[in-house]
């Protein structure tokens, strides 16, 4: 059975805001698959035939448990799938450029300047021996061709923008002299210093205090609106996604199981996995009831070619084992990959 499920061009582009419907996506991912080879047996498919569009000024959340493929997707979009993974299929068009078609040097030029990534472990990202101001300024000099003085000014401005207290002094600090939250802001400052049009945040704010996290999210949103950028916001926290993202995609085993605008997705979640995530998060009795109501008890054999969620799903039926579900529209801008309604 073919596992490739194609969806219409409009499926993932739809936003709930009518004015945005005319906007052209700045990020357009089509049929992306990424695999990790294994010593024996079939490779691990970390991202499977994934489509995603993001428009200017849009914040799209990507939520899923550990191992869902979020980081693999994020790093693949920067042309750096985690080793030994490799992109086996798909296109990524960013600002009319076919990113996967660029040379290594071409991708390097785009990365950091037009597309940047913020990760959750700032200590690994920063050079421990170099003052943080210099690290930010270097990125601006390399990518924007600024003079030393201009780059330094730009580094100072971005430190102020990410609300680093006493930025003049912090410019000279080494990473170990900063708190974790401050080091995280430095990494965000590096990602933003060239005003990229596309930012990928991979769990970048989860280690921060709740209040600092709220400030940083607010700041990210303001910068995205001001600079007409787009943000792919990866998180395991569905509550943060509900609060912060215009649309959210729920990912499981390398596939998007549900995607929708904030109101539609979070007020009327349709996929059993989304409902499970939400009921765990918000202790909602109604959701719990939906989650715990079993339609059919069935044996789920390993290696079946059906729904990737079947072995965890309280509603799995024979249809779910026989057919891989397509992403289908259930409301405006809201798509679900589930046989549930037809199987019932
Ligand atoms: N370097 C690697 N070598 C082999 N398999 C890998 C590697 N990195 C990831 N994988 C596999 O790819 C799949 C997706 O992993 P990935 O790290 O992208 O998930 P994730 O959703 O980002 O998880 P987390 O939230 O824990 O970071 C998993 O099955 C994982 O085991």
What does this structure look like?
With 344 residues, the protein is of the alpha/beta class. The protein has a domain at 18-114 and 196-262: P-loop containing nucleotide triphosphate hydrolases (Rossmann fold). 37% of the residues lie in helices and 22% in strands. It is built from 15 helices and twelve strands. The chain has an eight-stranded mixed sheet, sandwiched between helices. A four-stranded antiparallel sheet has the order 2-1-4-5, with helices on one face. Strand 7, helix 9 and strand 8 (230-235) form a beta-alpha-beta unit. Helix 6 (148-161) crosses helix 8 (180-192) and helix 12 runs antiparallel to helix 13. The model is unreliable at 1-22 (pLDDT under 50). This is Oligopeptide/dipeptide ABC transporter ATPase.
Task: Quickly describe the structure.
Belongs to the ABC transporter superfamily. With 344 residues, this protein is of the alpha/beta class. The protein is 37% helix and 22% strand.
Keywords:
15 helices, eight-stranded mixed β-sheet, 37% helix, 22% strand, alpha/beta, Rossmann fold, binds adenosine-5'-triphosphate
Question: Which ions, cofactors or small ligands are bound in this entry?
Answer: adenosine-5'-triphosphate
Element pattern in H and E: HEEEHEEHEHHHHHEHEHEEHHHHEEH
Identify the strand order in the major beta sheet. 6-7-8-3-9-10-12-11
How many strand segments? Answer: 12
Give the overall pLDDT as a whole number.
Answer: 86
At CATH's second level, what is the architecture of the domain at 18-114 and 196-262?
Answer: 3-Layer(aba) Sandwich
In the CATH hierarchy, what is the superfamily of the domain at 18-114 and 196-262?
P-loop containing nucleotide triphosphate hydrolases
Helix percent reads 25-40%
Cα-to-Cα separation, first versus last residue = 23 Å
Give me the CATH fold name of the domain at 18-114 and 196-262.
Answer: Rossmann fold
The structural class is alpha/beta
CATH class of the domain at 18-114 and 196-262: Alpha Beta
Strand content: 15-25%
| Spatial extent as radius of gyration | 21 Å
Largest sheet: 8 strands, mixed
Detail the poorly predicted runs: 1-22
Tally of helical segments: 15
Membrane topology: Peripheral membrane protein
Region (Disordered): 1-26
Protein name: Oligopeptide/dipeptide ABC transporter ATPase
Keywords: ATP-binding, Cell inner membrane, Cell membrane, Membrane, Nucleotide-binding, Translocase, Transport
């Amino acid at each position: 059975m073919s596992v490739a499920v194609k969806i219409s061009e409009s499926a993932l582009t739809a936003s709930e805001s009518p004015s945005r419907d005319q906007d052209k996506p700045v990020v357009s991912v089509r049929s992306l698959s990424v695999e990790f080879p294994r010593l024996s047996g079939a490779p691990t498919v970390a991202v499977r035939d994934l489509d995603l569009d993001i428009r200017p000024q849009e914040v799209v959340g990507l939520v899923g448990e550990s191992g869902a493929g979020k980081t693999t997707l994020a790093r693949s979009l920067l042309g750096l799938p985690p080793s030994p993974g490799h992109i086996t299929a798909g296109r990524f068009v960013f600002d009319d450029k076919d990113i996967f078609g660029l040379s290594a040097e071409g991708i390097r030029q785009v990365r950091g300047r037009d597309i940047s990534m913020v990760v959750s472990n700032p200590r690994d990202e920063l050079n421990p021996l170099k003052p943080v101001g210099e690290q930010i300024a270097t990125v601006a000099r390399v990518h924007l061709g600024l003079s030393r003085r201009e780059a330094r000014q730009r580094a100072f401005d971005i430190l102020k923008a990410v609300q680093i207290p006493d930025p003049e002094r912090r410019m000279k600090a080494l990473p170990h002299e900063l708190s974790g939250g401050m080091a995280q802001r430095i990494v965000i400052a590096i990602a933003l210093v060239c005003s990229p049009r596309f930012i990928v945040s991979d769990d970048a704010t989860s280690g921060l205090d709740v209040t600092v996290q709220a400030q940083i999210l607010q700041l990210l949103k303001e910068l995205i609106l001001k600079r007409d950028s787009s943000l792919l916001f990866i998180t395991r926290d569905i509550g943060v996604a509900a609060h912060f993202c215009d649309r959210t995609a729920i990912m499981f085993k390398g596939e998007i199981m549900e995607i929708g605008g904030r109101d539609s997705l979070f007020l009327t979640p349709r996929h059993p996995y989304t409902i499970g995530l939400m009921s765990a998060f918000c202790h909602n009795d109604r959701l719990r009831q939906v989650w715990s109501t079993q339609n059919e008890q069935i044996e789920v054999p390993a290696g079946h070619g059906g729904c990737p969620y079947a072995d965890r799903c309280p509603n799995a039926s024979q249809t779910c084992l026989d057919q891989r579900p397509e992403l289908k529209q259930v409301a405006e801008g809201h798509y679900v990959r589930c046989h549930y309604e037809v199987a019932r």
